[in-house]
């Protein structure tokens, strides 16, 4: 099985969306490249 992780990006920030809602998000990092690496 191949797992491919995903990150959500909003306004250049790495965020977590609640139920996929772009208006209801929590910012985890201002540097998405660092989060992906």
List the helices and strands and how they pair.
Elements: E1 8-10, E2 13-18, E3 21-29, H1 32-36
Antiparallel strand pairs: 1-2, 2-3
**Class derived from helix and strand content:** mainly beta
Number of strands: 3
**Strands across the major sheet, in which order?**
1-2-3
User: How many discrete structural domains?
Assistant: 1
The whole-angstrom Rg is 11 Å
Q: What is the string of helix and strand elements?
A: EEEH
Features:
37 residues, three-stranded antiparallel β-sheet, mainly beta
Would you give an account of this structure?
This protein is mostly beta strands. The chain has one domain. It is built from 1 helix and 3 strands; from the N terminus they run βββα. The protein has a 3-stranded antiparallel β-sheet with strand order 1-2-3, with no helix packed on it. The mean pLDDT is 90.
Offer a concise description of the structure:
The chain is 14% helix and 49% strand. By secondary structure, it is mainly β. The protein has one domain.
């Amino acid at each position: 099985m191949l797992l491919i992780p995903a990150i959500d990006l909003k306004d250049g920030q790495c965020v977590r969306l609640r139920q996929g809602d772009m208006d209801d998000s929590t910012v985890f990092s201002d540097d998405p490249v660092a989060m992906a690496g």
